[in-house]
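User: Sequence in, structure out. Go.
Assistant: Echoing your sequence, followed by the structure tokens.
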Amino acid sequence: MGTLKGFPNPPAMVRRPTGRRQSRPASHAPTDAPPPLRTLKLVVEYDGTGFAGWQRQDGQTTVQGCLEEALRTMTGQAIIVRGAGRTDAGVHAEGQVASVEVASRIPALGFLRGMNTQIPPEIAVLEVTDMPAGFNARHDARGKIYRYTVWNHPVRSPRIARRAWHVYDPLDTHAMREAAARLIGEHDFRSFRSSDCDRKNTVRILRRFDVRREGALLSFEVEGTAFLRNMVRILAGTLVAVGKGKMTPDQVEALLTRGDRTQAGVTAPACGLTLVRVIY
């Protein structure tokens, strides 16, 4: 077959050299690989007044549940948020710590900003940090600091009513400080736990137990390695009993050997308790 008139001969076909195909540079690697599994540390503040505590419960609004729902919305994954401690209904936190495992490329700052748009205004995520694999907010904690607040005045204070126990009677601050000092150290705190506490080992270490007063505002700040259920609230109720003259520092110290919950003070209301910090 000849060449069409007026058209030049087509160029000869050029064959590419055969051989093994060269691999792509690493910079052009596919980006559809699954995201890495990461461990995040959350520092959380909350007003616990309207929550049924930290721990997730069916049909109840809890802090853990709100955080998990926010993460599910952001990632599409069912993520478990593990807290350093399970605060009861009505208890507050300034520095609760939680750990989560998440498969995501969202940067830590993105989680911080995104979660705070998804959770109720009574909760705030203060920090999000990438941690080494295996970090556990509860098991890695070396201690906690709690503060219990009392409004010691004949007239209530609506301004702090959600965050303090209103005690009408005058309280002897000096006697309370002496009683608190007797509790510092390693002791068996069976007398200062709730009846439904199931811990077999009731020995705990209190590193410090401070009693401070500023006018009508009284605070007990206690630092320990760990705490039994309702332990801080029972300690607060016992100190208030001492402040009213219903117990003596000697009687408080004797409770450490008697192990009799019925002889300690009342369980102070949840509203006065705040988890201040978790120590690592």
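User: And one key feature?
Assistant: Helices lie at 63-75, 108-118, 173-182, 231-243, 249-258.
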